[in-house]
Specification:
Layout lengths: L11 E6 L2 E13 L4 E2 L3 H10 L5 E12 L2 E5 L14 H7 L9 E3 L5 H4 L16 E5 L1 H6 L2 H5 L3 H15 L6 E4 L2 E4 L2 E5 L8 E7 L2 E5 L7 H6 L4 E2 L5 H18 L2 E3 L9 E6 L2 E6 L7
Parallel strand pairs: 5-6, 6-7, 7-8, 12-14
Antiparallel strand pairs: 1-2, 2-4, 3-13, 4-5, 9-10, 10-11, 11-12, 15-16
Length: about 290
Amino acid sequence: MVKPPQSQIPGVYHRRVGDITVTAISDGFLDGSIEVLRNITPDEARKILTDNFRPARRTAVNAFLIYSAGRLALMETGSGNYLLPTVGKVLENVKAAGVDPAAIETVLLTHMHPDHSAGLTDMATGKPNYPNAELVVHENEPKHWFDDARMSAGTDREKKLYFQAAREQTLPYKDRWRLFRSGEVFPGVTAIPRHGHTPGHTTFMISSGNEQLLIWGDTVHVPEVQTARPEVCMEFDTDKDAAAASRRAVFDMVATDRLLVTGMHLHFPGFAHLARRGTGYQLIPAAWEPAL
């Protein structure tokens, strides 16, 4: 008797951007409540999800390897062991992609929430998972998450999963932090800050020759809902008005310039285009690329 497959192939997908190769790496997914959405009723959000054949709020968590100019960077590190058991797969999928974590010389973060930075360091040993990497992040992020007064004002969950996790995960890299405001942070990778979701939330434009890819970080968490209704924010946005304004600015740029885009919470592998639809937008998944 033939035994059927028991698991999926590794969550790895390559895409060329000119002379740069970007590899999408799946960290897994998070299932959560729609009650964390703001500026929309649960019934409205549920209808949009149902209309898009999504029975509930399932949030993909992605990271990206970037091969450029003979160097290798990892953008985001996933959730480590801080969140649900359905995530925390970045390290194993990086290895499945044939990459030794010690070969990664730069880790880029869009921000320091636990589904982005909690895979930096092994929780059990306190040792960096990427022992030779510098840590590159907007200067506002450690300024915010290492602020004791802000931490003391947070809920117990925020203190543990946001402030404390950020500190535990990034401190082993402290002597290799590189903080930026904007501009090129890795060959062919330009930081475009889009604050609001967090004080230092940043998108990254990858450019090579005539080709571009915008990695838009956490511009959306629930793609179907927030593209249709760009005003919809998340409970955990640091500044909801600024997050909505940043989202509209990103959407306008992506749709106007017909950019290829991907993000940390687009359904894996996440490469897509964005089209205007009335007062909102629609994501059009990019076709599978069989060759590099």
